[in-house]
Amino acid sequence: MKTLTSRYQQAHKEAKWAIGLALAYFVWWYASAYGLAPAPDNIQAMPTLYFGFPLWFLMACVIGPIVFTLLCAAMVKWVYQDMSLEIEPEWLETKSQPQQKAPHAASQQEDQHEY
Question: Is-contact 91 3, C-beta < 8 A?
């Protein structure tokens, strides 16, 4: 990562992936919890159990977290990049050159008197 702009682009890419994965997890949980739950007219019947859990609970609260933990690890391994947060000297030199003040900035300073 040579420039500050490329660091910002990478940070935005990582943030988009993280938000996307969080939204995908919410959709997974919602679809599993409410989509696989027993129908309201058949609430009295005992649901089929898998490993001692109803299917909706198994998918939403057991399988889902495992799958998305693995997806998160894959995202960190292949999408995220290790980069220095230090500002490099050549970037500092270009920013440290004096810049002309805007005309309105000078007038604002003159208006601020200590009384």
Answer: yes
